[in-house]
Each structure stands twice: as structure tokens, then as C-alpha cells.
Amino acid sequence: MADRRPSHRYPSHWPYRPRPPCGCAPFTRQGEDNPVGHPLNPVGVLLDTLLQVSTGRERHNSGGSLCSLSPNSDRSSPRYLHVTPPETTSCDSYLTLGIEATLYALGTAHSMPADLYLQDRISRGYENIINKLQQLYLDSKLIDTIKYASQIILDGGPSSGFGLNIHRECIPLHGFAAFLFSTLLPHAHELAFGVALRAMRMPVLDHLVPGGDDIPPLGGVPRGPFPRWFTMGHIESLQAELASTMLLSARGDAGKLAATMDATKRHVHGATHVFRLAQDALRLAHAPDGSRSAAMLHVALELGKHVLQNTLTSGNWKRREMVRWLVGCAVEAGLGPVVALMQGWMSMFTPAEASAMVATTVMQPATLMQLNLPSAQNDELCNCAKTLALQCASRDAPNCALCALNLCEKDPVAFDAAYNIVVDAANKSMNSAQIFNVARYMEHRRIPMRAYRLSLLALSNLVIAANQVSHPAVSDILWSTLLALGLGKEELGTVVPLLVRNIHCASVLYDVLRRCMIAPPGSVALGDCKRRPSRFLAPDRPPLRQLLEAAINAYVNTAHVRLSQISPRHYLEFSEFLGKAREAFTLAPDGQARFNQLLDTVHTAYKGKKKLLALLRERFGGCVTTL
Predict the structure, then answer these.
(1) pTM, whole model, 2 decimals?
(2) How many angstroms separate the CA atoms of 112 and 114, rounded?
């Protein structure tokens, strides 16, 4: 019976395409019937056998035409002949039949097995067979065979790895598709891209969307939403390599470039791989002759936006690099993409990223010089960046307020708006440390009154317990007190009640008191004038009198707390504590008498601690009469 397949002498278009003679086997549910990776290697043995029959070292009565050798092949490489099988009327040879059968075996759909060893063996089986095919030099007959087989596999339906509606756990054929793409591209451009775009799919991950999991589990056994594919990393790498090759080949074709970009955004699920593809597209946008491809630059920008949208909530360890790269890519594209990036920032960036990396980068002089815009457009871009910074500050004041103030410092209206955002957020979302940072920035900007108001808000939100001697806010408290002291006695009188109410640590209160006694009030410049420094403040007079009483009372309370749980190894430390307390007591007019009363109370309440009392008598003997 004559073979019904068209002759390879025909051109690349065949009107009739029957099913391949070997047949695409039905989809195997557990991958046990996959000939690729089988221990006996049936596909590799079949290919080697037919290649051996077609080698130039064998003699055949039927004769045959010699297949051209690759320019890179050495003299020891076998020389293949197109040997026609006996008693056949077709133009097929053992060589074309071997290539065709191998392609059908590689293109058949099979499920991924659950075993790690089987997954690795199948992956290596595909690679070994593809490496054998890549070593062959393909003449016109073999090219026609590959074109015919590729079209058959592409139209094979669910039983084909490149068919439509394949099973979600079908093994992806990215490596096989890369071989077909590179082979067919010089001869059948449309077919090559058709195969590659179809092979870009990752069914096992493409179905992980709401409403997309409509295929029953394999073998009736339910599986988790994420597959146990131990070779998934290798498969994703092959998919990314295929996408990169397609981008390179579609550089001059806007339609193919758009199709490749859409396939990448739809089927490549690894954020790192998509980011690398975006970087590849940006490199391809710059030709060696200095020209720039606007279409390829658009692809790079869209892929960068896509990866940032997908990692906005999930996060990625390279996200900071991705954000910086996307801003740089938008700057290369021009004013329009930069403005669009800042206007649509909420879908791609967090407020902290948008303010610290996007708006700040756009406002840098180097960026403005690179854009080389007219004055009007330059002002428009700066206003857009300031608007972005204010939006970020309103959404996340703790992380974005300081950056917004920095960006808006040359615009009085925008600067006032940023300051008001900080004031509104001081009692809602900002903690005292964040408010102190903004207040210090205001002082650095020589706006002491605003720094003073912010310090009051920070002090009202701050509480320091009696035992928090090394609290991180101690330096901020001292700075706020000195700032108020520099502004005048009235400002210091407003700060002192806040300190008395929220600070219960005796040593902190005493340090603040000593700092206030060192510098005279009213030494900070306000506007164009400067207050005349007055004399030093007395600790026993307002406004420091209240602070002194709070420090003495805190020392008394702390002494009783320490004595209630003191051990002999802490006696010397307690004696040092009382020595510092006596310094605070002596600042009051009746301080010595009150300190002696404290010592008498200690002797009466803790008279059983003989060693402690002896230590106190040795140190404070001149002050105590009852010890």
C-alpha cells in the first residue's frame, strides 16, 4: 500500500496533513509510558540505528545521495546518506524517517511523574536526544521533514505537547521547542514562532488562577495547588532561554515582538526570570551602531512593570534592584514613560519605594540632564515628582514624610503641605523616634519653631519607665530640652510638664536638669533677629523647680524599688546610685535634709541588711546621725 504522505520534494506547504504514522499516543496519566527517559532508551536506540544505517561507511544496494556535512564537523564524523528503504514508493529515507519518528516521540504529551528520580531521568533523556539532533547537519530534505513534523505536532490536539487544551500536568517542552525554533527560523519564520509561542506555556502554573483549576486530579488522587516538580527550576530556566531567543529573533518585527511579550507576561511566572528578560530586552534595544529600537525599549519597560506588579505584595529579594532598573529604563524611554510611571505608581511600588527611589531619582540633577528637557517640561516633571512624594507621605507618613520634606524643600507650598501631613500623622501612625527625626531635620533647615512643635508631639507620645536608663530616646529628649531652652523660658516651661508626666527615670530627669542649668535660655535665632541671652536658670525656681521635684521623687521611688529586690552583690551599685541621687538632692534648698530622711528610712525599713547599712555608713557617715 502506497504511503499517503506528501513527498519531501514538495514546497513547505502541504494541503493534506494526516496523523503521523507512529501516532501521538494518548496522554499518559503517570508518565510511565514515556519513551523519553525510559531505562532502555527506545527513542535513542531507534535514532542511532537509523543513523547507523544511513552512515557513509555502510554499503547499500539501493544507493543514496550523500548528505552534506556541517562546516564545523571534523573528518572523523560520519557521513550520512539518504538511503531509501527497499520496496517503497515514497521519497523517505532511513535518515528522514529516524528524524521524523524522533520528533514525534519528543512532541508527544506526557505527564510529569511524581518521583524525583523519574523527573530527573526524563529531563536528561530529552536533553540527550536534542543534543544528538543538534549535532546533525540538516540539508533541504531534513529541513522539509522537520517542517512537516513540526506542523503535525502543532496540530496534534491534546495528545501533542504543542496542542491546544493540553493537561495541566503535561511536561513542558521548552528545550525541544528551542531546537525547533532555531532550526525552522531561517526557513519557516511563521511556523517557528508558532511552535515557540505555543511551547511557552507552563500549564501546571498557568492554571493556578481563580476559577482556572477545572481539570480533575490525575488518577483520582487530589494534589496540592503547587506541584511537587523537583525539576521546576530547570524547566523555568529553559522557558526563559526560549523567551530570550524569541526576543532576539523578533527584534525587527513589531507583531512578533508584541506576541512574545504577551506570552512572556502570561506564562513566565518566575519574577527573577521575567526581570532578566526585561534586562535582555533593554540590551537588545541598543544596536551596535548606536541606534535604538523604540519597540524593544517598550517591551523592556512593560516587562519591568509586569514584574513589579507581581512582586508588590509577595516581595522578592531583588526588588530594590528591579525598582531602580525600571526607573532608569523609563528615563531612557523619555518624559512620557517617566510621567506615566509616577502617575500609576500605586500598582507597582510601595509608598516607601515610590518616594525614596522613584521620586528621588527623577529629581536628581543627573536624571534631569539625561532627559534634557525644556524648562517648562522640566518644571512639570518636578511638580509631578513632588505630587508623588506628597501622595506617598499621606499614605505612609512614618516612612515617607522625611523624604517628601527633602524633595519639597524648595517649594514653600509643597513643603507646608508635607509638614501638615507630618503633624496630622504624629498622633496616628508615627512613633516618637520618627517624629524626632523630622524635628531634627527642621532644625537643620533652620526652622526652630516647627522643630519645637514637632518635638512637643514626640514627647507627648513618649513614655520612659523608671528602669529604662539606656532608652534610645534619651538623646532626643536632651536635644528637645535644649531646643526649647534656646527658644526661651516660655518654651521650656511647656516642655517641662511633658517631661514630668512621661519620664519616670530618675537619671534621665537629672541629666535634663543639669543640661538646662548649663546654657542660658533664648540663644536660638528666630527669623532675622536673635533673642538676647538671659542669665542662667536656677534649679529651685520655675520652670526647673518642677523638674527638680520630679527628679528627687523619682530617685526616692527607685531607691525603694531597688531595695525591695536587692542582693549582696548589688550593694556597691546601690551605693553609687545614692551618690548620684545626693547630687540631685543638693540642688534643692532643703535637699540635704530630704536626703538624710531617705537614708533614715532605709535604715529603719531594712535594718536587717547589716552589710548594706555598714557600706552606706562608710560612704555617707557625715550625713547620717542615726546609722
Answers:
(1) 0.81
(2) 7
